[in-house]
Request: fold
Amino acid sequence: MIKTIGYFIFAFVYYICRPLPVDEKRVFGIMTHDTGEDSNVGLVIKELNKLKKGYYYSYITKAETESVKGFKSILKLLSFFFVKPYSLARSKIILMDNVFLPMAYIRVKRNVKVVQLWHGTGTIKKFGQDANTGRLKKLERRANRNITHLIVNNKQTASLYAKVFGVETGKVYPVGLPKTDDILNRMWEVKRDGINVYKEIIYAKNDLTLDKKMILYAPTFRDYNLGSESVLDRVEELAGKLPKDYVLGLRLHPFVAGKAKGIDISSTCDLSGESMASLIMASDLLITDYSSVIFEYCITEKPMIFYAFDLDDYLSHGRGIYKDYENSVPGPVVRTADEAVDIIKEERYCVDTIRSFKNKNFPYLDGKSTNRIINLITE
Reply:
């Protein structure tokens, strides 16, 4: 009920401001999932700035929405419910990395471009209209009516995302995502300079020696049984069985990461506060389960292991997945730490499988996806 009142207040102020003229140079960033410079929205804004055409920006961030939910600051409440709707109403371009539910009560002007740059580069798990139910599903669909450009990586994903977001296929643009460009540019930079600065920075910050290989452990967010210690149990089990020349870098969901700080194992380091792009570049191997990080990681063609210790429970109680999991992921699927460690020791990886997965999902690996998006939204 309180959330609904908040949505109404936001929309009410927006409609008061709606008759004001749209400012052609104003850009509004809704970054409620990822506020980093290497996020999809952050990378588009970075490219807009390079044009030097006088664009200026307003934002709604995850930290601001959390502050409003917790009634932590009167000033932030006033800003969120009065300044932000005004800025939104005046903006010509709206960039989003998530669904923003107050927009369920808003209809933007016809000449405004609302660009959904979803934070996941691809998906294994069902989400949006395929996963949500009841009132949330209806609100998301209403909010998504405002989308004019839904950006995806390829034509196969276009039809799926049109259904997931509840928009017409004509509004889906398979031009590639900025995160793809970012990983490619980092790879080209390392190849050009002959040195992996991302690895050196991450290792230096965590007092690691460069003779150690880093395994990035990035399990997905679980909707069910979030307070379970199951992920942390796997961390301790994996870390205790790894060869001595490996270190386990943890990139955990914030709810789990807080508990991980209590783990005192020399062969682990908590990297949950680092950018995912930097960790992709710094690591030598990825262990994950149902996370969309595999779509970015496969670009590097580095090995991946899928540690799906709770696959049966996840399929029964989770939101569901789109394909036959064990036959669609680009790497070996294991259920136990022993199986994962055996693969690591024997280096039983298949680069051809990863390369095939990459080529299937990324027809645009030219580093120009962000430019294509800029052309779409500034025409």
Summary: The chain has 17 helices and twelve strands. The chain has two domains: 2-176+366-378, 180-361. The first strand starts at residue 23 and ends at 31.
